[in-house]
Amino acid sequence: MRRQRIAVLVSGGGTNLQALLDAEAAGAVPSGEICLVVANKADAYALERAAKAGKPHTAIVRKDLGGSQEAFEAALQETLEEYRIDLIVLAGFLAILSASFTERWDRRIINIHPSLIPSFCGPGFYGLHVHEAALRRGVKISGATVHYVNEIPDGGEIILQKAVEVLPGDDPETLQKRIMREAEWQILPKATEMVCHLLSQDETEA
Ligand code: GRF
After folding, report:
1. 7, 89 in Cβ contact below 8 A?
2. 21, 178, 186, 199: most buried by Cβ count inside 10 Å?
3. Which atom of ligand 1 sits closest to the CA of residue 130?
4. What is the pTM of this model?
5. For the domain 4-205, what is the CATH code?
6. Do 9 and 40 form a contact (C-beta atoms < 8 A)?
7. Which pLDDT value is given to residue 1?
8. DSSP assignment letter at 65
9. Contact (Cβ atoms closer than 8 angstroms) between residue 29 and residue 192
10. 112 in ligand 1 pocket by Cβ < 6 Å?
């Protein structure tokens, strides 16, 4: 079966991208191939990781395109078509994608969120804010979720989840690190392979 062509969208350090690159190199994503990395910020360290891995990479920066969401998404769409992308993986990607964009890519965009959805998700719940809220609420278990992306922030169908214990004395940073290490970096590659395999099966059955 053909390998699905994956674009990874990033905004920051790219540790989830790194987990995907490492998984691909270890043969753990046989149904997909990372063909492109796109950052919405020119200084995202994730772009360095893509360069080191020899992957095509680019920054698409909204303010450099006149600042409109339409211009940003038009440039993104053009690049995705140029690289014949089948699946978009959001890995620490913090820009908004409009309903028209997510509808066009229905069930072909997945996202990693650093909590057990439906807890601590939706508008404003990103990065450390997620873990601050979890600690404030006093949950004993948190974790990560991979889900399909639709027009509702963190609202799409859940694909995989992994629970992580909250330890006494945790602060947002220690909890974030543990969830990244023990959950995000495990389930994102696994979910990516699952979805690529499904897409390939659909293609052969079509
Ligand atoms: C982290 O908060 C992570 O939990 C979430 O996105 C942020 C950056 O991740 N998924 P990364 O290191 O850029 O992958």
Report:
1. yes
2. 21
3. 2
4. 0.97
5. 3.40.50.170
6. yes
7. 83
8. G
9. yes
10. yes
Atom of ligand 1 nearest to the CA of 176: 4
* DSSP helix/strand/coil, 146: strand
Q: What confidence tens digit (pLDDT) does each residue in 156-202 have?
A: 999 999 999 999 999 999 999 999 999 999 999 999 999 999 999 99
Give the separation between CA 40 and CA 90, rounded to whole angstroms. 11
Ligand 1 centre from 17 Cα, in Å? 9
DSSP code of 64?
G
Answer whether the bond into residue 118 is a cis peptide, omega within 30°. Answer: yes
DSSP-derived 3-state class of residue 142: strand
Q: Structure tokens of 85?
A: 């992308």
Distance CA 103, CA 77 (A): 13
Query: Residue 175 and residue 86: Cα distance in Å, rounded?
Result: 33
Q: Would you state the pLDDT for residue 61? A: 97
Write the single-letter amino acid at 175: L
The neighbour count for residue 189, using CB atoms within 10 Å, is 23
Q: Which candidate in 57, 113, 131, 147 is catalytic?
A: 113
Tell me the per-residue pLDDT of 112-133, one tens digit each, with 9 for 90 and over.
999 999 999 999 999 999 999 9
